[in-house]
Specification:
The chain has a single domain, classed as TIM Barrel, CATH 3.20.20.140. The protein contains eleven helices and eight strands. The radius of gyration is 17 Å and the shape is globular.
């Protein structure tokens, strides 16, 4: 059986449909051309590659805190999708409860884009997420995770870390941010996404330079706390990326038994598919 026939859940992808859901005027970066893809097209892509479910992430690019396109996609997909929304730090419990009722399982914080000062006031929001058993999803880079850890620890919130924590490869395995991420693997409430390699690899596909980091993450977290993700449709990609070769990367790296855990069992349990 090839990886295209195996059951799969995509743990991080986006839908962008500005014809139906125009971007707000105040958004600094508005994806266009090959960066866009609506829910109907993504469902066809899932069918083409044997992907049963996906975790749709509201993109800071294009939509900011406008979650209409995300919620519409979840509704269109029936039970195929769960969502990660983007909200203001002042988001009240009632609004979070409404989002949760619409199959949103967490809130995204793109620290790599906005910086830590932008999120200096999110600790009360993290406590609200903890109360509702929702994930706090962080996209960090380099050592940014170290600055967030005190708030994360105090809140006790469940955590998703995007794209292997986006280590700076020139700084090696022992860089403080990556060591902090490995330490988080000791906590069952922390999950890391093996994804987004184009955001930090220096050699490009097939991303051989990220292998030591993936190995460390799998060892530290275990496959019960790791998920695979495509990052489709590759916003701001530095070069062409395609869904199929990214799946073949997983096929080369993991046994069929481990792929089943990474790409099906773990995300199915974590997100309630």
């Amino acid at each position: 059986m090839s990886i295209f026939e195996e059951p799969k859940i995509d743990g991080h992808c986006h839908v962008l449909d500005p014809k139906r859901f125009p971007y707000p005027e105040n958004i600094p970066y508005k994806p266009a051309g090959q960066e866009m893809g609506g829910a109907a097209y993504y469902c066809d892509l899932m069918d083409s590659y044997g992907v049963g479910h996906a975790l749709l992430v509201g993109p800071n690019s294009g939509y900011g805190t406008d979650n209409r396109c995300l919620i519409d996609a979840i509704e269109l997909g029936g039970n195929r999708f769960k969502g990660i929304a983007v909200v203001e730090s002042s988001c009240e419990l009632s609004e979070l409860m409404e989002l949760k009722s619409k199959s949103v399982v967490g809130i995204a914080f793109n620290v790599a884009l906005h910086g830590t000062k932008y999120y200096a006031d999110i600790e009360p929001l993290l406590f609200r997420l903890k109360d509702l058993d929702l994930f706090a999803q962080f996209q960090v880079e380099g050592d940014l995770l170290c600055e967030l850890l005190p708030m994360i620890e105090r809140s006790g919130v469940k955590v998703l870390i995007d794209h292997c924590g986006r280590p700076i490869l020139a700084n090696g395995i022992d860089q403080p941010g990556f060591l902090a991420l490995l330490k988080m693997g000791e906590q069952e409430r922390a999950v890391v996404k093996l994804s987004g390699f184009a955001k930090f690899s220096q050699t490009g596909y097939p991303f051989t330079d990220v292998d030591p980091y993936v190995d460390k993450l799998v060892s530290a977290f275990g496959l019960s706390q790791c998920i695979w993700a495509s990052d489709w449709p590759y916003l701001k990609a530095p070069y062409r990326l395609d869904y199929g070769p990214l799946l073949k990367w997983v096929e080369r790296r993991f046994s069929i038994e481990d792929r089943h855990k990474l790409m099906w069992d773990t995300p199915k349990k974590l997100f309630g598919f």
